[in-house]
Amino acid sequence: METYLITGANRGIGFALVQQCLANGHRVIATYRDKASANALFELAFESGLLTLVQAELDTEAGIEGLVGELAGQALDVLINNAGIMGPDQQDLDGLDSAAWLATFTINTVAPFHLSRLLLPNLLQSARPRIITISSQMGSLARQSTGSYAYRSSKAAVNKVMQVMATELADQGVIVCPMHPGWVQTDMGGMEADISAQQSAAGIVHFVQSLSMAQSGRFWTWQGEEHPW
Ligand SMILES: NC(=O)c1ccc[n+]([C@@H]2O[C@H](COP(=O)([O-])OP(=O)(O)OC[C@H]3O[C@@H](n4cnc5c(N)ncnc54)[C@H](OP(=O)(O)O)[C@@H]3O)[C@@H](O)[C@H]2O)c1
Question: Tens of pLDDT along 146-157?
């Protein structure tokens, strides 16, 4: 049995990741922001003795430090930085609100950096520590694309952050990978997306369970295929 920390777990891919980890017999610590929109997660915690819930706003340093404080001393095998936002409705050449762009970076790029570095003492208690950040192919520099400047740039940036971290933490045996979860039927992905959150989560957890150091510092898809940066 391993222990996973999954952020942004009250809906979408995060919720499906919690379900999949529990189904696989893992212990899960899951974060949510607002109890009123976390009913399904609370029901799951009521049913499963393996799920612990922690309230955490991850777009402030105080929120991140609060979560880290709650987890002090607890061993973690896997951190999944999943919480994220698409950013403002308008993000094209006609306009992009600068504050909203920075807010997109705060949760999609900066929060995974701080959470990962501050939880290292927890992760280093594991025999095979892994840091997974749910990124997106929309941040891939190898793909020609248009629009969504805030979202794309925040995911391209978090990919680089995770690659640097992978290099720095290799000596300590920490595996660090950004992953593209597919185009997923969630509030963010829309219902016309390619795959269900359950399919995405099943692929991600299957891949994470078998991850080795040789795969660290590379960008992967939910199907376990390498994605070009
Ligand atoms: N869906 C797709 O097709 C797709 C494709 C590529 C990548 N992704 C990435 O996959 C991840 C999950 O996406 P999703 O589709 O499941 O999105 P979603 O349904 O919109 O869920 C986003 C989750 O992140 C949480 N969150 C947002 N801002 C937060 C903050 N400041 N502090 C704490 N939690 C916060 C949300 O909490 P609240 O409920 O409180 O807002 C929610 O739990 C994201 O990183 C996204 O960029 C998604």
Answer: 999 999 999 999
Q: Are 77 and 2 in contact (CB under 8 A)?
A: yes
User: Ligand 1: which of 109, 137, 184 to mutate, judged by most atoms within 8 Å of the beta carbon?
Assistant: 184
Note the pLDDT tens digit of each residue in 146-201. 999 999 999 999 999 999 999 999 999 999 999 999 999 999 999 999 999 999 99
Q: What is the DSSP letter of 171?
A: G
Any long-range contacts for 46-51 (C-beta under 8 Å, 24+ apart)? Answer: 48/22, 50/22, 50/25, 50/26, 51/18, 51/22, 51/27
In the numeric block, which tokens belong to residue 61?
Answer: 């340093």
What pLDDT does residue 72 have?
A: 98
Distance between CA atoms of 226 and 229, rounded to whole angstroms? Answer: 9
Residue to substitute in 6, 10, 11, 68 for testing ligand 1 pocket (most ligand atoms within 8 angstroms of CB)? 11
For domain 3-221, is the CATH number 3.10.180.10? no
Distance 86 CA to ligand 1 centre (A): 8
> Rounded to the nearest whole angstrom, what is the distance from the C-alpha of residue 171 to the centroid of ligand 1?
31
Residue nearest to atom 28 of ligand 1 (CA): 84
